[in-house]
Amino acid sequence: MAVASSVCLLTVREERREKGERASTSPLPVCPWRSPPTMNSREFRRRGKEMVDFVADYLEGIEGRQVYPDVQPGYLRPLVPTSAPEEPDTFEDIINDVEKIIMPGAASPACTELETVMMDWLGKMLKLPEAFLAGEAGEGGGVIQGSASEATLMALLAARTKVTRRLQAASPGLTQGAIMEKLVAYSSDQAHSSVERAGLIGGVKLKAIPSDGKFAMRGSALQEALERDKAEGLIPFFVVATLGTTSCCSFDNLLEVGPVCNKEDMWLHIDAAYAGSSFICPEFRHLLNGVEFADSFNFNPHKWLLVNFDCSAMWVKNRTDLIGAFKLDPLYLKHSHQDSGLITDYRHWQLPLGRRFRSLKMWFVFRMYGIKGLQAYIRKHIQLAHEFEHLLHQDPRFEICAEVTLGLVCFRLKGSNKLNEALLERINSAKKIHLVPCHLKGKFVLRFAICSRTVESTHVRLAWDHISQLASDLLRAEKE
Fold first, then answer.
1. Residue 315's closest CA among 340, 336, 295?
2. pLDDT on residue 326
3. C-alpha distance across the termini of the chain, in Å
4. How many of the other CB atoms lie within 10 Å of CB of 441?
5. Which of 27, 264, 365, 446 is most open to solvent, judged by the fewest CB atoms within 10 Å of its CB?
6. Is 300 in contact with 135 (CB distance < 8 Å)?
7. How far apart are CA 89 and CA 61, in angstroms?
8. Are 152 and 240 in contact, with CB atoms under 8 Å apart?
9. H-helix or E-strand spanning residue 411
10. Structure confidence at residue 138 (pLDDT)
């Protein structure tokens, strides 16, 4: 699940270093990425007041609007581009399109149809295989879930239903209970705890596959576990591969795990909650290689793509796998278009029946920043993480505990776990920055994550000076 969900870099108070603090003197890499376009506080106030007027005008004139829209299913897609803009649009253009494109179908169709289009926009930004996109008549498609936890649970439940029906079709006398007690799901030992929770809710066994030296699940380790379990009469059916683990942002080997899952006819779900945003940059897209083997894929734009919580993007190759597991149609939920094949009924794609208009904020962000602006934002954060990594390399007291791939740096003082626990206590007690730890191969490790929209190189350097000074104070106290 998310790296950034459990640790954040707070803006460091820009205080002068006190006399005697350790200062960094070596040259640092210069961040080449320009900041993406953002509103300053003055423009934000102005636009905020305009939006209040927009809402007030709507409420004042609401009696002049129809209760039920005139638009027909499919009205929206021809009115918007097929992909996100490369460059930012103006705020005025977006607001004008709200009235022209969204409001005619605001009672319902716009909510559904914009979500379908925005998920296709985002899928194209990631260069997902065509099978995951809804398009005009695709079998796959995307849906906005509330969190990666929900997406994992939905995938597991859909996979459970699919394998149960397949086995019962082959052996009609086989009961659901007899199948359930033998089902086994798998994930890396580095997977987020929400994967284990999905197994508990789904009532199936979940086994952790030992990761390798780079904290990645490998195909050979998965295959060994499958052979053992099949020999014991168990039924492997579901695998979660993590891209960007919470502890250290490691990546399971999709190019090995994927073929194993396909060969064994198991559902493969990819959890890229934090790291997925980086895949919009061509230089990081290779981290998603192997996605073509997956049945479902998820990441959280609300973590690192400037979309406010909650917004968890989930795609499936075959939408009928989800719909088949969750479709219920009581009379009070029936509507005239449900059997037309012209609409996507997202209540069958998620746990709750009700849903918010979450695609609207995606539409605003993608248009306000453009793809290039979002790429610049990601690249800047990664460069700042490497800047912090560089500072650590200059100080022989510290060690880096995992490869720095994106915006997370795992580090510690050379020494005991107790020493590093004491350092973290000093850091967090000072309340200038906040770090969350993890354990890697038995070592207590500190995690420094770049995830604030407004973070700059200055903040990274101030944070480093603060950590360095606290480390000096701690080591001095240890000697006394």
1. 295
2. 64
3. 42
4. 10
5. 27
6. no
7. 28
8. yes
9. strand 408-413
10. 74
Q: Tell which phi-psi region holds residue 442, choosing left (phi > 0), alpha (psi between -120 and 50) or beta.
A: left
Question: DSSP letters of 340-379?
Answer: SSSS--GGGSSS-S----THHHHHHHHHHHHHHHHHHHHH
Name the residue among 139, 96, 143 with its Cα closest to residue 118: 143
Pairing of strands 443-449, 436-440: antiparallel
Q: Which amino acid is at 18?
A: E
Beta strand ranges found along 89-180 (DSSP E) = 141-145
C-alpha to C-alpha distance for 194 and 478, rounded to whole angstroms? 38
Q: Provide the phi-psi class of 431: left if phi over 0, else alpha when psi is between -120 and 50, else beta.
A: left
Distance, CA of 241 to CA of 191 (rounded, Å): 8
Q: How far apart are CA 278 and CA 304, in angstroms?
A: 8
Query: What is the C-alpha to C-alpha distance for residues 286 and 290, in angstroms, rounded to an integer?
Result: 9
pLDDT of the residue at 129: 94
Q: Give DSSP secondary structure letters for 236-266.
A: EEEEEEEBS-TTT--B--HHHHHHHHHHTT-
Structure tokens that stand for 319 in this block: 């939408």
Token digits for 442? 């038995």
Residue whose C-alpha is closest to residue 449's, from 373, 389, 374: 389
On the 0-12 / 13-18 / 19+ scale of CB atoms within 10 A, 41 is exposed
The Cβ of residue 157 has, within 10 Å, a number of other Cβ atoms equal to 20
Our separate counts of H helices and E strands in the chain read 13, 11
Chunked mean pLDDT (size 10), the chain, 480 residues: 40 36 40 57 91 92 84 86 93 90 79 90 95 83 90 93 91 89 94 88 92 94 96 95 94 96 96 95 96 96 92 92 69 49 68 80 94 95 96 96 95 96 96 94 95 91 96 89
Domains and CATH numbers, the chain: 109-329+339-356 (3.40.640.10), 371-478 (3.90.1150.10)
Q: What was the pLDDT predicted at 27? A: 43
